[in-house]
Amino acid sequence: MSVPIKVPEFPESVSEGTVVAWRKQPGEPVRRDEPVVDIETDKVVFEVPAPADGVLAEVLVPEGDSVRAGELIGRLENRAGAAADAGEGEPPGPSRAAAGGEVVATPSARRLIAEHDLDLQAVAGHVGRSRVLKEDVVRFLDERRQQATAPAGADRPQPAAQVTELHPVSQPAAGTEPAPEPVPEPASVPAPGERPERRVPMSRLRARIAERLVEAQHTAAILTTFNEINMQPVMDLRARYREQFQKRHGIKLGFMSFFVKAVIEGLKRFPELNASIDGHEIVYHGYFDIGIAVSSPRGLVVPILRDADQLDMAGIEQGIADFSERAREATLTMEDITGGTFTITNGGVFGSLLSTPILNPPQTGILGMHKIQERPVAEDGQVVIRPMMYVALSYDHRLVDGREAVQFLVTVKEVLEDPARLLLGV
Prior knowledge:
By secondary structure, this protein is α+β, with helices and mostly antiparallel strands. β4 and β5 (45-49) form a beta hairpin. It has helices at residues 82-86, 96-99, 107-115, 120-127, 134-146, 204-219, 232-249, 256-269, 313-328, 402-417, 420-424; strands at residues 2-6, 16-22, 29-30, 35-40, 45-49, 54-59, 66-68, 72-77, 104-105, 131-132, 164-165, 222-230, 275-278, 281-284, 290-292, 294-296, 299-301, 304-305, 342-346, 365-369, 372-379, 382-396. α8 crosses α9 (313-328) and α8 crosses α10. It has 3 domains: 2-86, CATH 2.40.50.100; 96-165, no CATH class; 205-424, 2-Layer Sandwich (Chloramphenicol Acetyltransferase), CATH 3.30.559. The longest helix is centred in the middle third of the chain and has 18 residues, at 232-249. Strands 12, 15, 18, 19, 20, 21 and 22 form a 7-stranded mixed beta sheet that branches. The protein has a 4-stranded antiparallel beta sheet with strand order 1-8-6-3.
């Protein structure tokens, strides 16, 4: 019996996608819910799972072609033994459906669990939560190695069960890597006098980025104000508590959590920067969904820390680490990158000393972090060397006046140069 493979429904803001790669070729067996094709939209790359066990009989839409929601792109053929053939080589344990969705793990965590023959439930119980990250598995393995001197009769962990997908439509199949953005192979060395050129199609993500940046320039009155921050107090605080923080929370203490907390304090004092313009109305958001710009093989993406004001420093660092990992693995979902009331971007990780960030519409503010560099500064009439960072705030002058923008940036500066203000609320 023939089973159709169709494009799933896209979110409301997405009209079409592009077939990036077929994971299976005609004649190959597949299992129900196993990814068979990757489709790229202007926001994310997601996987289309097989609707049933069988054999891929026909590919109707080749790689590179555009598709719309509900379009028929291939067919499966039910054949006896196909499901068994497709399951060869899989580790023993219950199926994905049997896992029940109670415990979930990121792709890198799943790979480590399979490599070291661990029990997902045991790892989840060890970390005390149902969402298992790569760092959790590494910590679990480290502690198990430390107990290697235990008696020889100690119980060995049970074979790992098949792990429930964290995002069923956007995770890579076991043992495979997500489809990267097509990159042309390096050109050969041209002969003397040659002037070679190469044309490659623009990815949907890159085209969407270009469209939004031009939209921001055309629709908003963007201005940028600058300041500089002495990062010594934050660096001293990190150095003092770094090991204790990582031991207790299982994640490194970075700079971004300090900036997120400082930004939230500024947004509470100047709500215009946490607002947006909708036609002739101003929407003041009573929550703080902070976008964190992260790089991926496909380009810059901005996943959202929801209700960031309700997260502690460890929660912020854990969320950012999770976003960074899933951006590299192309497993961010549409929900992860939709919305946001304010954005933070850090060009300093690439060495940028100063820049003017562009707004992420319809937001009215974006903070740009930059490289920390030792510079001579004046303190109490003396010239001293301090680790300084330039920061830039771009804002929509239609809603935010210069006074509010400057005072917001001063608030961020004051909080970071005296982190105790976060505890005292001053």
